[in-house]
Amino acid sequence: MARDYYEILGVSRDADKEEIKHAYRRLARKYHPDVNKEPGAEERFKEINRAYEILSEPETRARYDRFGEAGVSGGAGVGYQDVDMGGFADIFESIFSGFAGGMGAQAQRRRSGPVRGDDLRLDLKLDFREAVFGGEKEIRISHLETCEVCSGSGAKPGTRPRTCSTCSGSGQVRRVTRTPFGSFTQVSTCPTCNGTGTVIEDKCDACDGKGANQVTKKLKITIPAGVDNGTRLRISQEGDAGQRGGPPGDLYVYLFVNEDQEFQRDGINIISEIKISYLQAILGSRIEVNTVDGPVELTIPPGTQPNTVMKLENRGVPRLGNPVSRGDHMITVLIDIPTKITPEERELLEKLAKIRGDRTGKGGIEGFLGNIFHPR
């Protein structure tokens, strides 16, 4: 039985395309036969390639998710001829520069063209009520922004990068090795221009030739109602700036919710406790309780037992993505039985015990209260 492709790449079934790509790069670098000479490395590498081949394409991934291996194998299965090799070539270019010999011109066009900026991560802590109701939150981030002086070229205004003389603008250098079995050509990234094909002679003073500057800025982001620990928000194009006119990456904000002294959360329900006197439990009462919406009056029915759970409907957490729908607030009733009573209270309780026919005396009051709250 074929192994699960998600398991092979070490990603979850809801992983996005970038997560799958990063996992593939890491494993391909580790198990490529030219790097890893251990037994089984080549088979593992083929297995990793097959997993990426299936999961990197939305259509084949959808078929695999629905039908498993049967959906992507057989006569109608996906072979290497059906794969967008552009994606594979990009990955292999970044891992093994010497393996692009047969597609040097195509790889160079990609390398010297626009490159998307890196994604960034920010961890953000929220108070309990901020997570429940959401709202605007101001954050501070530090990311790379395209240099305004040179517009990202890295060259001083009025100048431009020149073609690299080492590689003649190809971004690659080739070395031919002759052996008794024939000549082998090794292709590697040009050390002079780092594969860009150009060299900056007069660097921009504002960015020192990098084409981008580290900038700290404030952002206002909207926190949806009902978020919880681990919720991830994507802020489009607030990652690092791209290179050579490429788009910026995204900012991912991971949310973590501080614990509250009074409330706990169970899915979209809120849980809390209240403590009432034994007389309020026996006779019933109306008391004020705290909710995330503010104080609310709660009716305690006569004869309420310890640890009774009472429900305040629609006072819980809004459902993420549908804030009109809310959970409930579940309140556990605790009953405070006094360990000490005044002589006047004792006299009244003894009279009540006599009416009920309960024995009194040493431990009598405790026995009376025990009969009320834990009847035989």
TrEMBL record:
Gene Ontology terms, MF aspect: ATP binding; heat shock protein binding; unfolded protein binding; zinc ion binding
UniProt KW Metal-binding keyword: yes
Cited SUPFAM superfamilies: Chaperone J-domain, DnaJ/Hsp40 cysteine-rich domain, HSP40/DnaJ peptide-binding domain
Compartments where found: Cytoplasm
Record-level GO cellular component terms: cytoplasm
Domain J: 4-68
Any single GO BP term: DNA replication
Main location: cytoplasm
ZnF CR-type span: 134-216
Cofactor notes: Binds 2 Zn(2+) ions per monomer.
Positions bound to Zn(2+) 1: 147, 150, 204, 207
CXXCXGXG motif repeats: from-to residues: 147-154, 164-171, 190-197, 204-211
UniProt: Zn(2+) 2 binding residues: 164, 167, 190, 193
Matching CDD domains: DnaJ (cd06257), DnaJ_C (cd10747), DnaJ_zf (cd10719)
Cofactor: Zn(2+)
Function description: Participates actively in the response to hyperosmotic and heat shock by preventing the aggregation of stress-denatured proteins and by disaggregating proteins, also in an autonomous, DnaK-independent fashion. Unfolded proteins bind initially to DnaJ; upon interaction with the DnaJ-bound protein, DnaK hydrolyzes its bound ATP, resulting in the formation of a stable complex. GrpE releases ADP from DnaK; ATP binding to DnaK triggers the release of the substrate protein, thus completing the reaction cycle.
Annotated family: Belongs to the DnaJ family.
Subunit structure: Homodimer.
Name this polypeptide is given: Chaperone protein DnaJ
Gene symbol of the encoding locus: dnaJ
